[in-house]
Specification:
Distance between the termini: 42 Å
Strand content: under 5%
Number of strands: 0
Radius of gyration: 23 Å
Structural class: mainly alpha
Largest sheet: none
Shape: globular
């Protein structure tokens, strides 16, 4: 039992990230200033990153200056920007379905760049999870915009590349410090873009501040620290699969907060997503392997000792 709980510890820590990310849409819609996506992305990343830098008092050294910039840009800066473009130009369901292909993209890049072979369970989990997300959020009247579709695919590729590079490069310090480096780099990349595209920052009230605190501290700082924990301890593919919990949380919050419809298709989608996530975890495969021999041993007939020849003529 202790071995089983230990094998699930890393996935349980990692799942904090997509659970927190799943609150982003509801918090943005209910608490943040409207039509300022790039400004919101800057505020999510830069203050938390700078706070971590001040608390940890450790700056990158040598090649980690440009590596932090690359990782921060791929996993947060460019990813956020492309994701917002996709969100504005595509129906939310279609955008979510495209980004749900991220685990498969991560597996492909991990095989190419770091020689990490995808498992059958991981591929099956990725396909199953993508189908589940489609059932969960995709609508029949979804229209396809070429720019939006390319932006969504670019967001998937950008994040997948960043996640795999994080595993490829041996980290020089603790995860929290590295998270601070990347958040600061992402915020600095997004800041001039937000200033040019959206202009001066809007006036904020108490509700806006509360929303930004939640997204910054929980939805970004804590979430990425937990996510990077998983990436450094598990395979890239199994970690990416856990990210599919994000649209499940977002959908359930939409049902509770915004009273959105939830029917048979959505229930099936939730079941497929969670099934796909679990199926792609090495801990699940190990549990199945342990369970198989134990059941066989329980079902095996007991062989009685053969009576002696004097007491029984044949055996």
């Amino acid at each position: 039992m202790e071995d089983i709980s230990r094998s699930w510890r890393d996935p349980l820590i990692t799942v904090v990230a997509p659970i927190a990310w799943g609150t982003t849409y509801t918090v943005t819609a209910e608490m943040l200033p409207p039509d300022r996506p790039l400004f919101c992305a800057v505020v999510r990343a830069l203050p938390v990153g700078l706070t971590i830098l001040v608390l940890r008092r450790t700056l990158p050294r040598g090649s980690w200056w440009w590596r932090s910039l690359v990782l921060g840009t791929c996993t947060m800066g460019l990813f956020f920007a492309l994701l917002f473009v996709a969100a504005y130009r595509l129906p939310g369901g279609l955008a979510a379905t495209v980004t749900a292909m991220s685990p498969l993209a991560v597996m492909a890049l991990a095989a190419l760049l770091i020689g990490e072979r995808a498992t059958v369970g991981g591929v099956v989990g990725g396909v199953t999870g993508t189908v589940g997300v489609a059932l969960l959020v995709l609508r029949a009247d979804a229209s396809i915009d070429a720019v939006g579709l390319l932006a969504a695919l670019g967001a998937v590729a950008s994040a997948a590349l960043g996640f795999v590079l994080l595993k490829k490069w041996d980290r020089p310090t603790d995860l929290l410090t590295m998270t601070g480096w990347q958040l600061t780099a992402a915020g600095l990349v997004l800041l001039p873009v937000a200033a040019v595209v959206e202009g001066p920052p809007p006036a904020l009230d108490g509700r806006d501040v509360a929303g930004f605190l939640w997204l910054g501290v929980v939805g970004t700082g804590l979430a990425y620290a937990c996510w990077f924990h998983g990436l450094t301890r598990m395979t890239a593919g199994s970690t990416a699969l856990i990210g599919l919990v994000n649209p499940v949380v977002g959908t359930l919050l939409g049902v509770v907060v915004a009273h959105e419809a939830f029917g048979t298709a959505q229930a099936a989608g939730v079941a497929l997503v969670l099934g796909g996530v679990v199926a792609g975890q090495p801990a699940a495969l190990s549990a199945v392997r342990r369970l198989g021999p134990s059941r066989l041993s329980q079902r095996a007939p007991t062989v009685e000792a053969c009576p002696t020849a004097s007491s029984r003529p044949t055996c």
